[in-house]
Amino acid sequence: MSSSRIAGAITKASHDQWALARRCQAAHIRSLEAGVRTLRHRLSLPLGQKGTNRAAGGYRSRGEWFQKSRRLTTLEARHAAAVKDWRAGRVRVVRGGKRLLNTRHHLTESCFTQPRRPSGLTPRSRATSVTVLSDERANPMASRLNSAV
Fold first, then answer.
1. Angstrom distance (rounded) from CA 117 to CA 142
2. Between the CA of residue 132 and those of 53, 60, 98, 123, what are the distances in Å?
3. What number of other Cβ atoms are within 10 A of residue 142's Cβ?
4. Dist. CA 11–CA 20, nearest whole Å
5. Whole-angstrom Cα distance, residue 131 to residue 19?
6. How many Å apart are CA 104 and CA 98, to the nearest integer?
7. Which of 21, 86, 122, 131 is geometrically suited to a Cys-Cys bond with 91, CB 3.0 to 4.6 A?
8. What is the pTM of this model?
9. Which three-class secondary structure state does DSSP give residue 24?
10. Between helices 98-105 and 140-148, what is the axis angle to 10°?
11. Are strands 130-132 and 113-115 parallel, antiparallel or unpaired?
12. Residue numbers of the chain with a pLDDT score lower than 50
């Protein structure tokens, strides 16, 4: 296979991943807008007002109303950040997948670590520090993890 084909395949995969992230970002913004719209509507109703078949009623207590008003503030901030990223053309794309992420976050349980040598470490850090294995005997996942570091 020629190097231009490999480069083209890599470029296509990168563009496809960016496009997917962009579509997911748009769906996330729509979801946040729907949540904000629902919360604003319910907060505008008097406490305890009954809902209809089409829309929910007001909140049952002042405590619930207060919690939902805080939730509205949080959703509005998240919406503003998502829209800012959308306008800037910024998406969050991560190499790898769920399996790689979970393995990386749980190295000890995945058996990809070994205790560090105690030289130069304090007694407290000796007990908690680990080193990622980098020998050829480790499985391919460990090699991928070590090359990403």
1. 20
2. 57, 53, 19, 20
3. 21
4. 14
5. 37
6. 10
7. 21
8. 0.60
9. helix
10. 80
11. antiparallel
12. 125-138, 142, 148-149
